[in-house]
Design goal:
The structure holds two protein chains of two kinds. By secondary structure, chain A is of the alpha+beta class. Chain A is built from eight helices and seven strands, in the order H-E-H-E-H-E-E-E-H-E-E-H-H-H-H. In chain A, strands 1-2-5-4-3 form a five-stranded mixed sheet. A two-stranded antiparallel ribbon of chain A has the order 6-7. In chain A, a hairpin with a 2-residue loop joins strand 4 and strand 5. Chain A is globular, with a radius of gyration of 18 Å. Chain B is mainly alpha-helical. Chain B has a domain of 41 residues. Chain B contains two helices and no strands. The chains are: A alpha+beta, B mainly alpha. Chains A and B meet through strand 6 and helix 6 of A and helix 1 and helix 2 of B.
């Protein structure tokens, strides 16, 4: 039995609105290039899975033209528009949104090579499936291994591109170990 | 792995691929529904279970159960 789209309902959904806010922030110069990663990024390529937050990987502005990265302008911008901080997140339209600067060369590359996707008429940038899977391999928590397995089973990874990413970021050993543990030969 | 297990696994993978093939917008709305349902459960405080053993205060030294 196939899966069909549901009938439109009266409920208001907010995810697209958050993408629109992120686009505004980028065009207003509050943030640099951004891309969606984490579980929500994975959902662009995989089946829906439950998550409580939305990870936005972003080139952050630097303080006073120096080299110190700061979240200050992002908080100022969003708080002035009625959104509220909650721990490391900012609550936007009911979603806990976290702004994360790229911490590794792999994430920097993922951000640079992120692709545009249309979500209900709103364009947003998202990490490629190959980069998301490679990041999961690098982070290597149990839930990350589960996600890599989902990427493999869903068949969304381009083997050539994925292999190239793994080579560039020294992850071939981890991939071999993952294959030994989780994949049938 | 026996045949029934293999069939279950095949069905799971097929279902996974069908869900993955849905429009992104649709998938994100499903996630938002799941998140709202989870929050609704978290906000519901179930009643405390009934204490099966009730002590009734009687005279001093009498701790018999009712």
């Amino acid at each position: 039995m196939g899966i069909t789209s549901r009938e439109p309902s009266c409920k208001v959904y907010y995810v697209e609105k958050i993408f629109a806010i992120l686009n505004e922030m980028e065009s207003d110069g509050v943030i640099g290039r951004y891309a969606i990663g984490g579980a929500i990024g994975a959902i662009f390529w995989l089946e829906p899975m439950t998550t409580k937050d939305l990870d936005v990987f972003v080139v952050l502005p630097t303080a006073f033209g120096g080299s110190l990265l700061t979240l200050g302008p992002i908080y100022d911008y969003l708080l002035a528009r009625g959104h509220t901080p909650q721990g490391q997140f900012i609550l936007i339209k009911g979603w806990a949104v976290e702004f994360i600067p790229p911490a590794t060369p792999l994430v920097e590359e993922a951000l640079a090579e992120a692709v545009l996707r249309d979500v209900g008429g709103v364009l947003t940038r998202v990490f490629t499936a190959e980069h998301l899977a490679a990041i999961c391999l690098q982070v290597a928590r149990p839930k990350d291994h589960d996600r890599v397995l989902r990427f493999v089973e869903t068949g969304v990874l381009d083997a050539e591109i994925f292999e190239a990413v793994l080579h560039r970021h020294d992850l071939t050993g981890r991939w071999a170990a993952f294959q030994d543990t989780y994949l049938e030969t | 792995m026996n045949d029934p297990m293999r069939q279950i696994l095949t069905r799971k993978l097929e279902r996974r691929r069908q869900l993955a093939a849905l429009p992104v917008c649709e998938k994100l709305r499903m996630v938002e529904d799941m998140r709202d349902a989870t929050q609704a459960i978290a906000l519901t405080h179930p009643p405390k279970p009934t204490n099966p053993v009730r002590f009734v205060k009687k005279s001093v030294g009498d701790n018999s159960l009712v």
